[in-house]
Structure formats: C-alpha cells, structure tokens
Inverse folding.
C-alpha cells in the first residue's frame, strides 16, 4: 500500500496493529499554527470560543437554579397560606381562653374577698382575752375598690408577627387595713391579744398606735389603738362547709 504524507515536516507514524484510524493532535496543532501566521488572532479566536463555552455553561446552570427556586417559592407560598390560617385560629383560641380565664379569676377574687369581714371579726373574737372589749372596728388606709376586678382587660392576642413573652392575666387585690380601738383592765391582756392576732392566718402586721390610761366608773382602764393588716392565706388552709339554716 502506498502512503502519502499530506503534512510536510510531520513525522510519519507507524500504523497500529488494530487497523483503526489514529489522529496525531500534535501534528494537527502544528499544521494549524503553520497556517495561522497571526498568533494574536488565533488567541482571540480561542478566547472567544472559551468565553462562549463558559457563558453557555453558566446560562444552563442559572436556568437550572431558577427552576429549583421557582419550585421552592411555590412550596413556600403554599405553606405560608396554610400556616396563616393556623395562626389565626391559634390567636382566636388564645383570645377565648384569656377571656374565660379573666372571668374565672374575677369570680374567684370576688368569692375569696366576700368573707373578709367574717374572718376579721371571727379572729378578733377568738383572740380577745378576758377583761378586754372592743369599742371600734373600722377600715383604715387607702380607699377600697380602687382596682375593681371587672375592669381588667385581656391581653392582646398573639398574632405571630411579634414575639412577646406570655403573660398570664393577674387580678389585683386591694390591701385591707383594719383599726381596732378597745379597752382592757390588764396591760398583760393587751400583750396576749396582740400575740394572738399575729398568730392568726388572716391577720398580720399588728402595730400598737396608742395606749393611754382613762377612768371609767372610778377605775383605771387602758384604752389602746391597734392597726392590723388583713392577709389572704393560701386556699389549702381554708375549709369551707355548707351553710344551713334551721327553720322553725
């Protein structure tokens, strides 16, 4: 077989045993370099080809990323619509719960404070020693009813837009101060009376405001003035029994 070398100056290559076509890239590059005399023009063409390939690769990757982001956006919009309904239902449920809780606390506060005077009078009569009697039992200090429980409003519902700490509604209660004016014929009985009042679960802060000697029926007696604060004990210490009235 006759072989013709079409590339002058290129080395001849031996044919392989496989019989398949073979390409000499070095020879092809040398041929192109020999034909292209301007190296800068070749570099410009090569740079343009590389730039085109890079731009095509970036375009395809951006299109793929855009498709992924559009799918994520559709899913996020669907989830947002679903969770918006859930948050609205949660806010309405919290508003109903707060309203019911405030009403329950108001009823509880009114129920606990309606027995203030019975407790005060019972504790005074229980602690009162012999030869000692009361002349006046009255309220003192700030005016009562400044913070009525019925005026308490429910906190604004949590809409989920602003994170706020959960605050349970608290029913304010007025501090009850009681002034006791009494008389005794024994100064030691006054001391026992004050100690008994201090030991009461409903009374505390016993302070002697004034003590003076007076004459009554030709005998010396001691008139005293005590200031006492009503305290609300824990509900576990209270025992409630049904109130029954026997009719005749």
């Amino acid at each position: 077989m006759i072989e013709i070398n079409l590339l002058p100056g290129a080395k001849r290559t031996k044919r392989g045993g496989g019989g398949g076509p073979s390409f000499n890239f070095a020879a092809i590059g040398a041929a192109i370099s020999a034909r292209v005399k301007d190296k800068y023009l070749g570099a410009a063409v090569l740079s343009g080809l590389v730039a085109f390939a890079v731009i095509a690769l970036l375009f395809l990757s951006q299109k793929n990323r855009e498709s992924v982001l559009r799918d994520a956006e559709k899913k996020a919009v669907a989830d947002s619509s679903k969770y918006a309904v859930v948050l609205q239902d949660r806010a309405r449920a919290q508003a109903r719960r707060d309203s019911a809780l405030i009403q329950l606390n108001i009823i509880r506060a009114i129920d606990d404070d309606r027995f203030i005077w019975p407790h005060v009078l019972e504790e005074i009569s229980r602690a009162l020693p012999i030869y000692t009697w009361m002349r006046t039992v009255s309220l003192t200090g700030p005016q009562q009813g400044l913070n009525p429980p019925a005026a308490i409003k429910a906190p604004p519902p949590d809409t989920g837009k602003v994170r706020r700490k959960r605050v349970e509604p608290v029913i304010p209660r007025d501090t009850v101060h009681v002034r006791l004016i009494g008389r005794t014929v024994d100064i030691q009985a006054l001391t026992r009376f004050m100690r008994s009042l201090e030991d009461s679960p409903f009374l505390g802060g016993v302070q002697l405001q004034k003590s003076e000697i007076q004459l009554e029926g030709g005998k010396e007696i001691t008139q005293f003035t005590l200031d006492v604060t009503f305290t609300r004990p824990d509900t576990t210490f209270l025992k409630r029994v049904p109130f029954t009235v026997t009719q005749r």
Q: What stands out?
A: The longest helix spans residues 39-113. DSSP finds four helices and four strands in the chain. The beta strands are 132-140, 176-184, 203-216, 219-230. Residues 25-114 form one domain.
